[in-house]
Amino acid sequence: MSTGLPENHLLYVGPILIGALFSYFCLGAYVVQLSQYLLNPVDNERRVIHVLVALVALAEIGGVIVMSENAWRVLCQADFDPTLVFVLSNWSVSSPMFFGFVALLVQCFFAWKIWSLAKNWLRFVLPGVIVALSLLQFSACIALTVQFAQIRRDSSKWGLLQKTVILQRAGSLACDALITASMVRMARIFLWKYKMETDLRATQKLLNGLIINTLENGLITTLFVALNLAFYLWHPTDYLNQAFQQAVGRLYANVLMASLNGRVRRQQQRAHVSVIRSESKDVHGPSNGRKNILKWFKTSHKAEEVELEDEAEPRVVKDTPSPPEV
User: Fold this and answer.
1) CB under 8 A, 24+ apart: contacts of 83-86
2) Do the beta carbons of residue 249 and residue 98 sit within 8 Å?
3) How far is it, in rounded angstroms, from Cα 272 to Cα 194?
4) 202: Cβ–Cβ under 8 A, 6 or more apart, which residues?
5) DSSP letter at 325?
6) CB 3.0-4.6 Å disulfide test: which of 51, 130, 136, 224 passes with 111?
7) Residue 242 · residue 305 · CB < 8 Å
């Protein structure tokens, strides 16, 4: 490594390496989920969903190109010219635009899901606030692009952009936290209600999986964005937060595809549950909830007890003459 680098050069080079590796890992997972979505189409899929997936894929391609070029510049070319660590390429200016656009698309998608599930005044208030926060963080990304170009892509002057960076990441964090809280709340209200009303174990397993999937997807993005903001506030003048920032777009894309692919799995599980219900009706007749199942269980249990008692007692045949005594 050239001696022209600063003493704390590991805080510049190390996070770029870690962020690039994690970003490629998320990219591989995204490609797998995208192929699964394309190979298992959902019946009567809305055209807007196809447009959404296409836009996210295009933004991800652009984001990966910019990230790869930046990693090559800092990790390889900076050995020969240490100033390249601080003065980034022209491509790096568009980096906030790519991950901000992906975040906007994914957050608006979840706002639509909340709008379709919520009731009363929450149906309009929650999606409206989520869209407003998402537009706020995307506007801050546009401002970052302009301001970063104005300081000629010199990362040593990042202190001049601190307010805009904090606004962008705080807005994204607030939006993701609201989405997570809303989805988990509605999952507890609706899904647990249907879970208590159903009798089949397969249906309960399906609802449990849906609740866990909703919780995990929301917590992943919220935790990741929170760490991104925390590390920036801790070290605002170096690249330490880039270990998280470079993979934000790939993470949002993975959460979107996991949510879309989850519908295919739930559709298959619902078909399996309907088959089980139809077979249960054919065998035991029409059911009337838990009471009929409990009644059937008690009846069958008593029948088994009678059979066991009959097997234990010796059978006596009536009207049969006994052998003569000798």
Assistant:
1) 83/4, 85/5, 85/9, 85/12, 85/13, 85/155, 86/12, 86/154, 86/155, 86/156
2) yes
3) 17
4) 269, 272, 273, 276
5) P
6) 130
7) no
